Amino acid sequence: MKLGLVAHPKKKEAIMVAGEVVELVHKMEQDGKDISLVIEKELRDVLGEVRSPGASVEKMAPRIIICIGGDGTLLKTLQRTALPVLGVNVGSLGFLMEIMPKNLKETLEELVAGNYTIEERTRLKTLLNGERLPDATNEAVIATSTPSKIQEFEFYIDMGWAQVLRADGIIISTPTGSTSYALSAGGSVLDPRLNALEIVPIAPFRINSRPIIIPDQSTISLKVTHRARTAQLVIDGTFRKTIRNRDQLLFTRSKEKTRFVRFDTNFYRKFQEKILKERPPLNMKGKY
Q1: Is residue 273 part of a domain?
Q2: pTM, to two decimals
Q3: Catalytic residue among 31, 45, 71, 191
Q4: For the domain that residue 239 is a member of, what is the CATH number?
Q5: Is the pLDDT of residue 287 over 70?
Q6: CA 33, 34, 37 angle in degrees (round to 5)?
Q7: Is the dihedral of CA 199, 119, 3, 105 positive or negative?
Q8: Distance CA 287, CA 269 (A)
């Protein structure tokens, strides 16, 4: 099994954990295990690693990419690949991450043995004036460029007029992103198995402007209608673009999927532990 390795290049803990992964993989190789490693080239230079080849994320061809960092690092990696990604959390929340660094050895053994699941999630496709922008695993946010200055948005669903919204911004969220910024803005929690998208206003002027959940095969057309003010489009917190009055934005489900490597597929258990900060009750076997 060939694994890819990516880590936040400026986090000391992420670099240290990446070094641990390298040593564990080489030890397993020496023990005759079917495992090898290709390292993101910038990380390889930081580690000074010469035993494993280096490549950009886009040119990697492993079965699974191990991503070390927080949710932001994982989302940035997912914008660059459609390969299955396993998140190792060295961030603060790490809701999308699957394991902690202390579980590395056990995890690598489980990967080699094939004891894991690939979970597919919806991605959001974004077109700006016909140009394809990076897909989003979480959300696309269109927000006023000037804090405290309200923006006007007009949007259509399946080419039918839906609403003129006056607000600080608007979030187009996947089910995965429903537990992120959309939740903070008053959106609903969507089960990641749903084929849906959520439209969530940010600080709307009218109190009756509420989130809308639509089928993910729908097309959302949006434009900024305030002539004197620009807006900022932000995709998964990393990709940014200035939006002007005459720009046309289209959102729909991407043909590509986000693929997570999972050992525990219980979404609600993770939601309780990470978001609600509650420990779930014991199951019938006396385990959490």
Answers
A1: no
A2: 0.88
A3: 71
A4: 2.60.200.30
A5: no
A6: 105
A7: positive
A8: 12
Which two tokens mark 190?
Answer: 């969507």
Identify whether 31 is a catalytic site residue: no
- Structural domains in the chain (count): 2
CATH of the domain at 14: 3.40.50.10330
In a domain, 284, yes or no: no
| Long-range contacts of 90-97, Cβ-Cβ distance < 8 Å, separation of 24 or more | 90/8, 90/11, 90/13, 90/14, 90/17, 93/274, 94/70, 94/274, 95/71, 95/179, 95/180, 95/270, 95/274, 95/275, 96/71, 96/137, 96/176, 96/260, 97/70, 97/71
- 106 and 127 part of one domain: no
Instruction: Outline where DSSP puts E strands in 8-129.
Output: 36-40, 54-55, 64-69, 85-89, 117-128
Between 6-10, 193-197, 215-219, 224-228, the lowest mean confidence (pLDDT) is in 224-228
